[in-house]
Design goal:
The chain crosses the membrane at residues 40-61, 67-92, 128-151, 186-208, 245-266. Pfam families: 7tm_6. One of its GO terms (biological process) is signal transduction. One of its GO terms (molecular function) is olfactory receptor activity. The chain is mainly alpha-helical. The protein has helices at 7-17, 32-62, 67-92, 94-110, 113-145, 170-215, 219-266, 271-311, 319-332, 349-374. It has one domain (21-374). Helix 5 packs antiparallel against helix 6 (170-215) and helix 6 (170-215) packs parallel to helix 8. The mean pLDDT is 84.
Length: 378
């Protein structure tokens, strides 16, 4: 008998798989020693990614006349800078994430059969795409880690150091450092799946609330639904405020990765290098879609609550309650969205389409510039 993939299993898997992403908060009951160990672990993860970023910047300074290496290192730098920056962003939002996860777990434990059905519907809807996404990102990480087996380079990342690195055990230590930082970059990209789970959960909550509004028949049931709507709006706002800068950083780094990996793929390079950077560019494009898809659903589901209110028996209620319902409808005209003023417009599938258009226009522009400067070499 095939086991059903439930939200509880998804959360348990992400909690283990994303340990090095430092995105999962400690439980509310964490002891002081656990908090200290967690802080030390986060700082060590930050330091590891920062050391690789510094090494790549040093390489850029030495090889600034090598256009191909500039594109390659620029792509890698965008991936590894994301490690310390996103760890810091998750750490700054640790208290909010703690509250969000606590409420999510409580809701799942206390959910009724109808609520569990809606949540399971969302899990079944998304599981294939996100499993394939994790497989694609894993393939990218594995291709980079085992790159030295096929490429003429001693380490997974082509980077230079201001000291001799061919002697043991230093060479092994550096190789392990490269493997670890590639793994960290991999889990940071996968952390967008964690962000997506939070958004899908909010979308499911709004759909559950819409069903309740359509079924209410009494004054007391209307009051309960209105109160649930207010609490859900606050919860949704907490989530969007928590993840918006994380989404912004993912979009920024993904844009750089797509442009430089695309230029590397279009240049005259060995097939092994092209294949490696094709997977990097594909993973970067998927990384943004992972968040844009559920964010678009949250927009629609939070707006659909007003339709559910209108389809209920509101016209049979008291005038005072009708005024409260009118407030609910008017509030739904401003749907819940992931946005950063002046930096990130509303994250949605429409935004993702414009993001693709803009990113490929950047790629085309840089391609033309480099072709003019370097002639047939690119």
């Amino acid at each position: 008998m095939t086991e059903i993939l439930t939200l509880e299993k998804v959360l348990a898997f992400l909690k283990v798989d994303l340990a090095f992403a430092c995105c999962w908060p400690l439980p509310v009951t964490a002891t002081k020693s656990q908090k200290i160990r967690d802080k030390i672990f986060r700082w060590c993860c930050c330091l590891n990614g920062t050391l690789m970023s510094i090494s790549l910047m040093y390489t850029l300074g030495l090889e600034r006349d090598n256009m191909f290496l500039l594109m390659k290192v620029g792509c890698e730098l965008s991936a590894f800078l994301q490690v310390p920056i996103q760890i810091i962003l998750f750490t700054l939002q640790n208290d909010r994430l703690q509250t969000i996860i606590y409420e999510m777990e409580n809701f799942i434990q206390q959910a009724k059969s109808e609520e569990k059905y809606v949540i399971q519907k969302y899990v079944d809807k998304c599981k294939l795409f996100y499993i394939m996404t994790l497989c694609c990102i894993t393939t990218t990480a594995v291709a980079i880690i085992f790159g030295p087996l096929l490429l003429p380079q001693p380490f997974p990342i082509e980077v230079q150091y201001p000291f001799y690195v061919d002697k043991q055990p230093l060479k092994t230590v550096i190789y392990l450092h490269h493997v670890m930082v590639v793994y960290q970059s991999y889990v940071q990209v996968c952390s967008n799946v964690f962000v997506a789970v939070l958004l899908w959960f909010v979308a499911a909550r709004f759909e559950i609330l819409s069903h309740k509004f359509r079924k209410v028949r009494s004054f007391s049931e209307y009051k309960i639904c209105i109160q649930l709507h207010q609490r859900l709006l606050r919860y949704a706002k907490d989530i969007t405020m928590t993840i918006r800068y994380i989404a912004l950083s993912s979009i920024g780094f993904s844009t750089v990765a797509v442009v430089f990996s695309g230029l590397t793929f279009l240049s005259r390079q060995p097939l092994t290098i092209k294949a490696q950077f094709l997977t990097v560019g594909t993973s970067a494009l998927i990384e943004v879609f992972v968040c844009a898809w559920p964010a678009d659903y949250v927009l629609n589901m939070s707006n659909n609550v007003c339709h559910a209110v209108y389809e209920s028996l509101w016209y049979k209620t008291k005038v005072s309650l009708q005024k409260d319902l009118l407030y609910v409808v008017s509030r739904c005209q401003q749907p819940v969205s992931v946005t950063v003023p002046c930096m990130l417009p509303t994250l949605s599938l429409n935004y993702y389409a414009s993001y693709l258009s803009t990113t490929f226009s950047y790629l085309t522009t840089f391609r033309i510039i480099f072709a003019v400067e370097d002639g047939p070499d690119i």
